[in-house]
Request: fold
Amino acid sequence: MTRRAPGGEAAAPPIRVLGRSGVPVTALSFGSAAIGHLFTPVGDEQAYATVDAAWDAGIRYFDTAPHYGAGLAERRLGRALRPRARDGYVISTKVGRLLEPAEPVEPGRDGLPAHRRVWDFSAAGVRRSIEDSLNRLGLDRVDIVYLHDPDDHAEQAFRESYPELERLRGEGVIGAIGAGMNQADMLTRFVRDTDVDAVLCAGRYTLLDQRAGAALLPAARERGTSVVIGGIYNSGVLADPRPGAMYDYAAVPPDLLDRARRMRAVAERHGTTLRSAALAFSAAPDPVASVLVGARSPGEVADAAAQFRAPVPADFWRDLRAEGLLPQDVLTP
Reply:
C-alpha cells in the first residue's frame, strides 16, 4: 500500500493541556472505534484516508483502544500516523482488556489471527496491555492511558490498575493517566480519590444526557482535572435523528428520537445544525479539554471539523430552554 505524504494541513483547533500533565490536546479529537468496524466494516484504504482527513482538519489528538476491532483500530491508526513526526501528535489508548488468540486459532475477517478480549485490571495486565498496544501501533510510547470501562472491576481498578498507571507516569513511560467510561459516577470517584490527569466520559454530557454535569464536572473543576467528552452524538442520533438511528450503541427509544428531532427543528430555524449544537454544548464547560468525535470516512471528519468551527446563535439555546428541550440551569456556550 502506498501512503501519501503528510500535507494539506489546516490550522489546528485550540490546544488545551490535560490537568497538570503538560500533555497538549486539540479541542477537537479523533476517535478510532469506527475504523475498527464499530457498527459497520471499513476497508483499509478508507480507514487511512479518514485519519489523513483528521490530520488535514488540524486534529492532533487521536484516541484508540485494544477493544476497538480487537486491535484493528490501533494497527490502522499507527500505520496512518507513521509518516508524521512523532512529536506532532498525541495518542491515547486504554487498558483493562487483553487480547488473547481465539480457539481454534484461525484468520479473522481482516486476514489477521482472530482474538478474544479478556478482562484484566491487574498491575501485570496493565503493563502487558501497554506493551501490546505499542507493538500494534508501531510506536515507542503513548501519551495518555485510560482505564477502560472498569464498571464491574472497580476495586481491582483502584487497588491495582490505577497505582500501576501512577508508577508508569512517574517512570516517564506515559505522560497522562485517567479512566474512560460510559458513566459519570465512577469517574467522579476517580477525580475525587486519585490523582488522574483526565477522565474520558462518553455519552454522559450531551444534548440528550447531562448526568456528568451533576457531580463529575464540578469535581473536575475543583480538582483541576481535565475532562474529555466522547459520544457527543450519543452513537449517532444527534448527528442524524431518523428512525433506526443509534443511541448509546442500541436503537434509539422513540421519546429520545422525538426530542432530538425537535432540537433539530429549532436548530434549522436558527440557521445552524444539530451537529454544531451538539459539539458546542459538550465543549462548553470549563473542565472540558477536548470533544472526541468518531468517524469512518473523510467526509465525516470534514463535516465534524466544519460543525465544530461554526458558531451557534445564542437564541438557539434560549429557544431550547423555552421549549423544555434543555434544563434551565444547564451551562450553554
